[in-house]
User: Fold these one by one.
Assistant:
Number 1:
Amino acid sequence: MDHSGHGMTMDLPPFTLGRGLEWSADPFFLVACLLGLGLYGWGVVRLVRRGDKWPVGRTVAFVIGVLTIALMMCTRLNDYGMVMFSVHMVQHMVISMVSPILVLLGAPITLALRALPTAGRGRKGPRELLLMFLHSRYMRIVTHPAFTIPLFIASLYGLYFTPLFDTLMGSKPGHIGMMVHFFAVGMVFFWPIMGVDPGPHRPGYLMRMLELFAGMPFHAFFGIALMMASEPMVGTFENPPASLGIEALSDQNAAGGIAWAFSEIPSVLVLIALLFQWYASDQRQARRKDRAADRDGDKELEAYNAYLASLNTQGR
């Protein structure tokens, strides 16, 4: 049975990194990645042509983020991921935790809002529709931690420990839908925490860190559960093809180790990004105060000095 639709997954030779990185494109993800890169590039070019600046770091982050999706879905890693739990888990972790972080650091929504033309008075173009979507009740719900954290957790336990996973892996549309879901969950989870783009839910930096660490322990527990299991827990990977030369339980244990390790990597990445954003925010606030002081002759400082002087006078 060939789940992937591109490559005889039942006759795959034993996994090596070289074999896994061979080109084997999934048409859906290949088109999606090329479209994403093309639209982002159009936005950057449009800004540059009119004399605006766009940070190079954002472009680099976005491009690498999209390329990580292509790496997972347009190579033979996708074929091996249909029959090896460990390779599938690498796909899941990268697409749900690494790719969204990098794409979000690229600020694609901010770029779209700056690059898209404004529609005429009384009309609604793509930019106006995007703004309506960002300010909609739907977005306020799906970016709230009361929604994102349970969704993040349910995407692990509710998928792998129920028959739903086997059902989705049994068809090409189901597999594509599952991978899109992983990416979408990662986007809505990390966007309020460390996304550069504007959003309906944007708590303070300390609260963002708490949101991040609220979800990660459940991720680690999921990995530990797979590592400690004494029998295969997912039907799809119970009987790996003999050509792979692997044993189902040991491969599942490896998948658990991968899930556990990946719960630490995004935490560090997001924490670093948050600390940089916090520092930059403080610097901007300090510059605003300096400019305000220059404009009003530092009246706040003068008022404070006058207050101290009055206290001194009263004390005599």
Number 2:
Amino acid sequence: MAIAKAERLMNLALCLLGTRRPLSKRELRGSIEAYLEAGSDDSFNRMFERDKDDLRELGLVIETVENLEGDTGYLARRDSNRLPPITLDGEEAAALGLAAKVWQQARLAGAASGALQKLRAAGMPEAEDSYEAHHSALEPRIPVHEAAFEPLMLACRDRRPIVFDYRKATAARPEQRHVEPWTLECWRGHWYLAGWDRDRAAERVFRLSRITGKVRSRAGSFTAPVPDVVTVRETVESWAGETATRSALIRLRTGCGYPLRSRAQTVRELGDGWEELEIPYGHGLDAWLVEFGPDVVVLEPADLRADVVDRLRAVAKG
């Protein structure tokens, strides 16, 4: 079965690379023996869509083109799938090796290892791993536990609109969101998706742990321009609470909330196992404070206290 699938993928790739015009599903089905043997149109369509996604995941750039009659065709242009010679010095090779280690616990582990093997086969130097030699007690990792990570990553890469159910921290039930995904960013150990919310006609940031159910792709192209990566990262930091505009006063149980303590501007002992902290207050602080549960009490400002209470009530309602 594995050999049959590999042969089918190779034939599809050759067809898409060898054509000068987009080929329709009907033409591809008539050109590849495995597709001709498909029992029904539905069986062929499922097989073709899986194969197309597999080739894209392997790195083949497949374009989807509509002709004047509205029919959809596919092709893989050679200039889009040809890389210039890659030359790396020792420091660049070491940086790539370290980056590959970061993803060892994520779904990208296989892709990262495979990429390094291909580069080494092409002559990339075997750099001395100074990080491993001097920092063996530290292990770089980016944990990815959310099921939505991989489909979102692929949607960002392929610039495909998506739809998913999202439950805000203040909501008892999730609601459907239609999004043009830009990029994924990790901040304070949590993954966030930045993109264009079509229903609200505005940029939005979504925490992956609040996405429920499956992420589904949608046809069509993006309607809003994609900003550069620096602007997107600033957007995520602002929505997640990095940009502080004022200060908040909280009461924190002694021995708890060390991430909050690291950001505290002032700390004052209150006695009875409590301390008073002044911390920077920006968008998203209410969601962060809720994570510490009964160990944190917001004293001021009043609007932050009200937001935290609303979130706790939503959690209590389930």
Number 3:
Amino acid sequence: MFAAYVSHFDRDRPLSGLRLGDRPDPEVAPNWARVRVKAASVNHHDLWSLRGVGLGEGALPMILGCDGAGIDEDGNEVVLHSVIGDSGHGVGPDERRTLLTEKYQGTFAEYVTVPRWNLLPKPPELSFEEAACLPTAWLTAYRMLFSRADVRPGDSVLVQGAGGGVATAAVILGTAAGLRMLVTSRDEGKRERALALGAEGAYEPGARLPRRVDAVLETVGSATWRHSVRSLRPGGTVVISGATSGQSLPEAELNRIFFLELRVVGSTMGSKEELASLLSFCQAKGVRPLIDSTLPLDRVGEALGRIERGDVFGKIVLTP
């Protein structure tokens, strides 16, 4: 089958390790299912895999892609929950949880196999391309907002770095749920597009906000950390699910954190139950993922290059 995979790691030039070509059709283990991939979305995780983060040399070659939607062997339209081993279904009793492409081959291919437990029915209201956007970036945003940030309708939430998949998902989901969403971005065009999605305010990084917020969603890391902490009201929460600009903190703001009793909460992906709730939320509210562009799988290098440059607003989707 045709696939996009990692041949070797390069931290400085990650795309040099990307290869396109034939790979063996996946074998189906007991209690696993084979899915014909109809759409797969691109994530920063794919770039990290090309750099060798979370992936060992012994696992190469590794097919990229941790998001996908398609059709199983019985003809059912399905969405993949990308966390393997979280429940113990289909894996050994002592196996730690992993994302697709960390141990098991991914979705940038014609076929993928996952534990049957990891399949959810695709709502008919969602296209395969829309459904493929949900399991990583959108599920991450959903968990950050509704499971970890402890916010309710009417509360204010700041999203650092408008434009990426998690950030745009958070704005759309938060607005639909009655939250007052604020965003930052260096790009004026991205700020304007965030306002069009429903954000109440859009600001340059580090700008003073009109009021302190109840929660901050942080995926940028060192470049925005100080602003995130200083933007919170007393008792507010910063939820972290990534650090794309690096994790070193020259000024951690510890005095402010303990004096104002701020909460710092980590968040990673989401559960199968949360993905089911996200799918239901999209059905009930008419919410749809923002798709930047849809490309054929053989243009995956172009898609990853745009992710690396930050030249994206929403999700890029690949169709095998």
